[in-house]
Amino acid sequence: MIVHGIVQSAELVEQDEDSGRIEMLVKAQGVGAGQPRKFFIPYETLLADDSLDVDLIQGRAFEAEIAPDPAERWIVVSIRFAGRMLKPKDY
Predict the structure, then answer these.
(1) Which of 13, 62, 65, 87 has a Cα at 20 to 30 A from 30?
(2) To the nearest 10°, the Cα dihedral for 41, 43, 44, 50?
């Protein structure tokens, strides 16, 4: 599924209580009706791209391909962000 929106918030969370694997939980606004408003960016993707920083992506527009996992969570397959901030951080 392809979703478009704006990152409302993002935080690093542990995947499972004792797994030691970190994921990024993204909460989005402006996605279409019936589309998920929260999804996870997997650990491997976070390691591969230094620009995926909680503070840097908040307030930015995005387009993501997401897919459900066996635990019925939405996981990012690919994601890209707008080239500029939509709202300055100090605004």
Answers:
(1) 13
(2) 80
Q: What angle do CA 9, 10, 14 make, to 5 degrees?
A: 145
The pTM of this model reads: 0.83
Please report, as a single letter, which amino acid is at residue 79: I
CA distance 41 to 12: 9
Question: Digits of tens for pLDDT over the chain (91 positions)?
Answer: 999 999 999 999 998 777 778 999 999 998 888 899 999 999 999 999 888 999 989 999 999 999 999 988 999 999 998 865 445 555 4
Position 35, amino acid: Q
List, in order of start, the domains of the chain with CATH numbers. 2-81 (2.40.50)
